[in-house]
Amino acid sequence: MCGIVGLHLRNPELVPRLGELLTGMLCEMADRGSDSAGVAVYGDPVWSPAGQGCVSVLDVEPEGRRVSEALGRPVTVCRIGDTCQLSAAADSEDLLAAVRSVYPGALISGFGTDLTVLKGVGHPRTLTEHWGLAGATGWQGVGHTRMATESAVTPSGAHPYAVGPGQCLVHNGSFANHATIRRELIAAGAQFDSLNDTEVGARFVAAQLAAGRDVETALKELCATFDGFYTLLVSNRDSFAVVRDAIACKPAVIAETTDWVAMASEYRALSGLPGVESAKIWEPEPEVVYAWQR
Fold it and tell me: In a 3-state reduction of DSSP, which class is residue 265?
């Protein structure tokens, strides 16, 4: 089943409340998926210092000294629950290469400027408390609660999938032809961390963006390529986009005010947002890409 949520802030006065608001949205979707959860937070200055490259790591406890030696410049390690968040005054892809050279078995949850990705196994409320998510700040957040159908309940099977620089994808539904597309992506050089069908969609979108397409074009290409039932939310540090399959099988609702744009699998996840009573609220149309820029 799964639940997805996203919040894109327009009003700087709400930036200190991002984690609080995102926590409420995510926990409201817990009964749509209580076996694992994850979030992507853009702009928390403690977790992802402004202008620095960041890498979110699971399954190992990296030593900053070793990664610093591989990178050739100082690296800071911040522990957030079971995630180690590394940051440095360097391009995030260079930092990622240094992490992988020292810790080839690490699970990379995400990488990019201003980005922190946290995910794990357990009830969403337990995980958000473990992360201290309510205290996070920033201008944008994306979250997912998972009820596993396609692959094992592990951190690598949890969303978001953040496989391109600064990019995140969360997904409710299933892709019927993901095995075929996975083989095509592997043949083109992609490497996978899980058997989850959502990772196939994320790597497809990342490949489209790496080829120079914008997010709207990439999602239109996904709709033309993937079969199945889905609602997707794709983000980077400057954009926030939503699309559904051709028959809009999976639920989704969008709300917009002058202060924020938000989406969720169900309205109840939006009901606690400030000013929601005056928001424009609608159900996204099939295969229409809705996108907002920061």
Answer: coil
